[in-house]
Design brief:
The complex is a heterodimer of chains A (about 700) and B (about 100).
Chain A lengths: L2 H7 L2 H12 L5 H27 L9 E10 L2 E9 L1 H24 L25 H20 L3 H19 L6 H32 L4 H5 L2 H9 L9 H16 L8 H4 L5 H10 L1 H11 L1 H4 L11 H22 L4 H21 L3 H36 L14 H4 L1 H15 L6 H15 L3 H26 L6 H4 L6 H16 L19 H7 L13 H22 L11 H4 L1 H7 L4 H75 L7 H22 L2
Helix pairs in contact in A: 1-3, 2-3, 2-5, 3-4, 3-5, 4-5, 4-12, 4-17, 4-23, 5-6, 6-7, 6-12, 7-10, 10-13, 10-15, 12-17, 13-16, 13-17, 15-16, 15-21, 16-17, 16-21, 17-19, 17-20, 17-23, 17-24, 19-21, 19-23, 20-21, 20-25, 21-25
Chain B lengths: L3 H21 L3 H25 L6 H31 L13
Helix pairs in contact in B: 1-2, 2-3
Classes of the chains: A mainly alpha (about 700), B mainly alpha (about 100).
Chain lengths: ~700, ~100
Amino acid sequence: MSIETLIWLTPLPPVLAFFIIVLWAHRNNRLSHGIAIGAMLLSWASAMFVFWRAVNTHDLGHHPFTSSINWLPTGETALKLGVLIDPLSALTLFFVAWTCLMIFIYSVGYHNFGKKRDSEDRKGLPPHAGGIEPMYARFFAFISLFAFGMLTLVVSDNLLLLFIGWEIMGLCSYLLIGFWYGKPSARDAMIKAFITTRIGDVFMLLGLAYLYSFTGTLSYREILYNEQTLELLASTKSLIPVFSTGGLIGLMLFIGTVGKSAQFPLHVWLPDAMEGPTPVSAMIHAATMVSAGVYLVVRFFPLITVGWHEGGHLTPTMLTIAAIGAFTALFAATIAVAQNDIKRVLAYSTISQLGYMVAAVGIGAFVAAAFHLITHAFFKALLFLGSGSVIHGMEHGVHDTHEYVDPQDMLNMGGLRKKMPVTFATFLIGGLALSGFPLVTAGFWSKDEILADAFAHHHYIVFGTLALAALLTAFYTMRQITLTFLGEPRTKAAEHAHESVRSMTLPLVILSVFAIAAGWMGIPEEFPLIGGLIPNWFHEFIGGTLLEHPKTIAFNAIPLLTSVGVALGGLLVGWAVYRSLKSGAADPLRKPLGPVYALLENKYYFDELYQVAFVKPAYWFAETFTYRWIDRGVIDGFLHLVGRTSLRLGAFLRSYIDVPIVNGAGDLVGEGTKRIGRALRVIQTGRVQEYLIIGVVFVGIVLSYFLVFKP
Amino acid sequence: MIPLSWYVLFSAALFCIGLYGALARRNALAILMAIELMLNAVNINLVAFWRYITPDIIVGQAFALVVFAVAASEAAVGLALIISIYRRRHTVAAEEIDMLKW
């Protein structure tokens, strides 16, 4: 089997698993998760093999593994469907396969496999007393379909197949956020997520169509590796004079990313998506699906940056992207500071980190963006799974003590390091990676690279914003760790929490290895002391994705010291503020920050703003305008008018034409015949002699007529 | 030679007797006999006019023969009908045989 065939086959096992589970295996929980994990294991093994081959191929960027078929003939040309493994997709495939597999395994424990089903548990609601999830098999079917979507997206060699995978994931995201559909909040969240991302998707589809109509192809290699096409895209003006055609297409594709990766202003769905089961939050809303948005902009980096040369002025498209990314990074980080729900903090931190990557693409830091994409996927999946483990432990505590507290509220936790040592250790690693703890963690290297790139190319505003966001990131991460694991338990439930099962902690351990080690592959060679110990393999490898190998950045102490400073400073402040929080006490920041804290806690009132600006008008439009005015007023009114007019016309025709004339004539014929018959029947007596008399009389009359007149 | 008008008057009288019988008699047999009378009156007319007006052409006599044949068969059919009616309804009174009405 050639490597191309293997790439084709890589996404398939999960989708087969989906159909097998849905159609046949769903009654048997063990069989269902066996099929799902087995299929994912196959995909994982094939992805690892492809990755290994990709890494060992010389100059993969110019000689990628590629294969395509004609799928949809469109006149002269045909839409092609194909697979492509170049350095970027190889690396993405690597982290997608790993995180997906870990999350599949984790889900077994998370959904309490092996426990008896609690008779009080209902489908569509989370199990409340530690029983097995009532829709266990369905969960595995959905995440299998999801994994198929993501793998398809990654191995695709064109925008169309990417879009298909993208939409499959959108559907799965919808289904999985609303997995516990018995909860109204989950139902609202699923609709919110679907509609919000749809806004981005519409623009993305427009961009896709624009790109296809302009270049006649959607294949990456034919667009992104074709200097003539790129030159043409850069030089033609688009409908909007500021942007070149390529720039406008790039911007439209970027709006797709804004929806999928929850960038400002379409960020509102991601925190609410935490209503789904935690593995879903980890898989879809941290590691893979939201990364797909960033993958798109990283993949289309040559298109987005058309007309830009390394070190030159940013194009309007890039400026927009950089501004949105940097703003989102800071904006989401500030909100995360004031959230108490352990998953919501992570959700906002995801938005913030995705903003980092987007900002990195915006300033042209291709390598840094891709690097952060990969490291982030590992440590954020780790953090989410860790938080799921914490919630699981807290739920046990709540169940054991019968003390009703919100198991997701960090203010109710504390001291869990003793109860859940493995979760604590791995969560600490993930948290430090997220905050960019110097030297050891993966997050440090990738984040530092973005900051260094921004500084080196004199994008000081972006640099400042991201540095500030990094400070806040370190702060809220330490706040989270301190509130959850350090100090003393603040509730009885926290005292009774216990460590999760092996199938949940094992993925945590594996992911925490990546959360540290993933950074080592990209240590800049000029870094003091340890630089060059390990070659900067990542830069070499991923740089091959672009036509022109990107330059490495000259070492500069200022961004390095900044990133070390903000990371350590944020961690220290976070620890200092929250280390001695008493049970039942409010957040210590609430008082000094005052109204600002309320603003942050309520996420800048964006949900309320959107409620007033979009949801209410939409309801008004549907209810009052469309239904009452247009439907009931105009359309129904017109129909009623037509109906009434026809009725009147009909009544007129009936009473003046049909009844007297048509019916009258008909009746006259029948009635007349009847009357004549009745009148004449008296002479038909049946007596022969009377007939004879009539005959004689008649003959007599005729005869006398002839006799008298003699004709 | 007896003038033609006598024959014609005789035949008219015979026809009137037959007509009267056919209209006035109640018995169906009598009506049948009256009809025979009227046919014979016609025969007298036919033969008389042949003898006095066109003795060379035999048509008048031939026609009278046809009328005989018709009269004979008519009597046969009529009698059969009357017997059949009598068997069913036990009457031969013409005004009681009135089933063929509305």
